[in-house]
């Protein structure tokens, strides 16, 4: 049986497909006992729950699926009214937006993308922090040389925001998307300064995925568009990443194995940003 890297309760937004779906599976395999999932796509949440149950884990998590739109403050209130305690949060919900240069983007398009990618994520983080601040400090549960070391490596909670490689580098016809992901990275850094220190002990990090093989990155016939093929070939590994690879990265940042990492944007992009 795999070592339990995470124990307790976790929330995953955008859990109905792609990276969010994979994160839910990875958390379940890694030991969470309570899993809250949310997505605007209710059928996607059902598919995620079914996938976890089909794993036939010895101790599967209790899953609470709460469909809704994280861009809605009313839904955020409803969502967090159903969560009494929280140890981990992985904020995966996001949209790509249209390929347009700034002068051709409408205010409606700008507001829609930012209402999810930045404002919606911020509303979630705000409530996640409130819940985690109520937690007791949990010592690092794996091997240490002393009880003191386990306490030093302890945490009240861990938050992982899914940003993007495009929060670090620019891309043609994607200004509002890249800006929204840069905002997530900047918020992550500032929140980490405020909440990682004693007495809070809440670590906040981001993952910056490259191009990941999800329904969002494939055409209707399942083929990768020429536009994405060019971007894929920029990365030294010359392939798309797998949702499971991003999920494993997120679980690592939740776990005590990353106990000295905070405010970081961990890039998992096959080398795209170094080229």
TrEMBL record:
Keyword Oxidoreductase assigned: yes
Source superkingdom: Eukaryota
Signal peptide (from-to): none
Keywords from the named record: Oxidoreductase
An example molecular function term from Gene Ontology annotations: oxidoreductase activity
Matches recorded under Pfam families: adh_short (PF00106)
Cross-referenced CDD domains: SDR_c
Similarity comment text for this entry: Belongs to the short-chain dehydrogenases/reductases (SDR) family.
Record's protein name: 2-(R)-hydroxypropyl-CoM dehydrogenase
Originating species: Cucurbitaria berberidis CBS 394.84
């Amino acid at each position: 049986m795999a070592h339990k890297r995470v124990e307790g309760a976790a929330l995953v937004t955008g859990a109905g497909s792609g990276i969010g779906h994979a994160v839910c599976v990875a958390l379940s395999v890694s030991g969470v006992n309570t899993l809250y999932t949310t997505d605007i796509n209710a059928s996607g949440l059902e598919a995620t729950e079914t996938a976890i149950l089909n794993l036939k884990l010895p101790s599967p998590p209790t899953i609470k699926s709460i469909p809704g739109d994280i861009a809605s403050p009313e839904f955020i209130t409803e969502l967090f009214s159903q969560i009494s305690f929280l140890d981990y949060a992985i904020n995966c919900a996001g949209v790509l937006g249209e390929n347009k240069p700034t002068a051709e983007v409408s205010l409606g398009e700008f507001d829609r993308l930012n209402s999810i990618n930045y404002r919606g994520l911020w509303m979630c983080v705000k409530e996640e922090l409130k819940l985690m601040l109520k937690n007791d400090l949990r010592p690092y549960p794996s091997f240490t040389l002393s009880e003191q070391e386990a306490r030093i490596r302890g945490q009240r909670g861990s938050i992982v925001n899914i940003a993007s490689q495009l929060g670090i580098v620019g891309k043609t016809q994607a200004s509002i998307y890249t800006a929204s992901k840069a905002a997530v990275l900047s918020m992550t850094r500032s929140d980490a300064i405020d909440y990682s220190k004693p007495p809070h002990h809440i670590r906040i990090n981001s993952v910056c995925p490259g191009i990941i093989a999800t329904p969002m990155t494939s055409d209707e016939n399942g083929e990768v568009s020429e536009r994405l093929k060019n971007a894929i070939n920029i990365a030294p590994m010359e392939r798309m990443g797998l949702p499971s690879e991003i999920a494993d990265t997120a679980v690592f940042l939740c776990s005590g194995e990353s106990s000295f990492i905070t405010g970081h944007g961990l890039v998992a992009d096959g080398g795209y940003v170094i080229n």
